[in-house]
Amino acid sequence: MNWVSSGYNWLSTTLTGGMTGNFIELVKSIKEARSKQKEDKIIKEELSSLKILLSKENSNPLSEQQLKEIGIRLIYCNMLSHVIPDFGVSFCIKLIGRRNNRDLMRLGFFCLNMFLKDSDESGLLLVSTLTSCLQSRQDADVWIALTALSQFCHPEGVVALVDAVRRLQAHPNPIIRKKAMFTLQHFWTVSPDSVINPLERISGTLCDADLSVSASSLHFLQDLIRINHPHVKELVPTLVSVLQQINERKFPRNFEFNRACAPWVQIELLKILGNLGKNDSKASSYMYEVVAQSLQTAEQAQSTAGYAVVYECALTLVKIHPSQQHTILAANAIAGFLTSSSPNLKYLGLKGLAEIVKVDAEYVNPYQEIIVDSLEDSDSTIKRKTLDLLCAMSTTRNVVFIVGKLIEYLKSMSSGNPGKEGRSLGGVVGTDPNFKKYLVDQSVDLILKLKTKDDWVVSTLLSVLVYGGDSASFQVEKLLKFIFQGGKSLGNFAVDLFLRALTNSSLSEQLIGAIATILGEFGENPKLEEILNSLSGLLAKSQDNYTKCLIVTAIGKICGKLGTIPENIKIQVENSSSTSVELIHQSSQFKIFSHRGPKFLEKMLGIQLEKFN
């Protein structure tokens, strides 16, 4: 109808023409104001002039155009955070009383919606006018009144108006029925006791022949679910019936979008069903078949709206009482998003699989390879989401595979080798130190959380720390702590492993210090000379003074175990001192105590292990 399609065109029409010089001057002066104080002064003067103008209305009647302009000027003042005085509210109430002019009625309601709150008692002055409008035979009057009531209404006024609004749920015009439901929802929000049997109101609207009217009750139903209404699950069969009708396309074609039937209504219905079926096997039993049917129908749409419905169907199947068959169906549908060229769908796929993992990681295990491939995506958000998903789906059964893939990826980041699509992984993410650090931190935590064997933990942690470089500096201490807690046998394994790792030229200074510490503590015959030569090489290459201190300490312990201090080692340590006070002190101690014998040197330079035990 024309009165619906016009909407609030009266406001745009008023603004685009017919303004007098007074309004233009007001806007201009506000624009030129250089302070808030000046702006407030201008608005106060404007309100005073409007009050004088309205006080003379009886002797000097105003035209329709002038009344509209006064309303716009009041709105402008209110937009600048000024409270509209009582004369302005009275002016709007008078506009509403002009039943013969709907433009002025609409303007009056629009202004009051901005000026008043639900608790403002001035709204009670409108009860009589609103009651008359609600009972009008003119749809336009009813629509204007319902629109106003759905936005503001005093709690005491609700009691007087609720019956009239309730009767409008049977109005022949579907737009009026829809507005009536929105108004009842607002009444319930303002005064819950005034709306008797809200579920009965919602149930009747859900069964409406017009889908837009049925959909208008869903927000009200969500409010009742939020407060755990005791009988809300009684509506499950009705909701399932509405969803079934949508799947069978029993509604007009104007509800279709992107080859999907009423996608937004479907999404709202699915969210509600997901909440109602959670931890309830009986309620869920009504839902499995129709939700699965919705998923399969939406997949056939092959459109953005269809994918949105597929995603929501999958979440619903995961949220309600679990069914193995339907959870597998949801996982298959969501995993299909990962192969899409759209980054938005990929992200949704990862997010959906993360929800399925919360039910059981076994449902996601068949898609490990596809998930790992998402690490090579150029979108940093997708990479992070992929990493989070891999960590969430890891178990003692697949942790070796997943960590191996993460290390492989970390290695490619460090070396800059091209990925599957020929792009340089190092070039893509090597320049993002934050993501690299996040990857290292997550990998280390995952290894320590799901450790299988101690030697696997040490060798895997070492690989992560080697390829992590400086991004792994804060994780080095966790490796040291784990080895010391593992005892002598694990320490001996770490010595052999670390000696081989020293051939890598890209070790960070923190990792070199940790390796030196382990070699000094757990090194034994017949590898003491090899260890000493390795430590000598590390001392020559190291550029960090603290790392040099750790190496000197390790050399002292190895010399004590060896029973001799080679002259070249003694000279190298003495010459390694620099401007660092700690290193000068350590080198001096080495020189002094070395004269008393290797065993005494080992004792005096021994490292403190308490913090690792």
Strand order of the largest sheet: 1-2
Number of helices: 34
Helix-strand makeup class: mainly alpha
Tell me the number of strands.
2
Average pLDDT rating: 85
Poorly predicted runs of 5 or more residues = 1-8, 418-430, 607-613
- Termini separation: 81 Å
Strand content: under 5%
Q: Strand count, sense and closure of the main sheet?
A: 2 strands, antiparallel
Residue share in helix = 55-70%
Radius of gyration, taken over Cα atoms and rounded to an integer in Å: 38 Å
Shape, principal axes of CA atoms: elongated
Using brief descriptors, characterize the structure shown:
elongated; 34 helices; mainly alpha; 2 strands; two-stranded antiparallel sheet; disordered C terminus; disordered N terminus
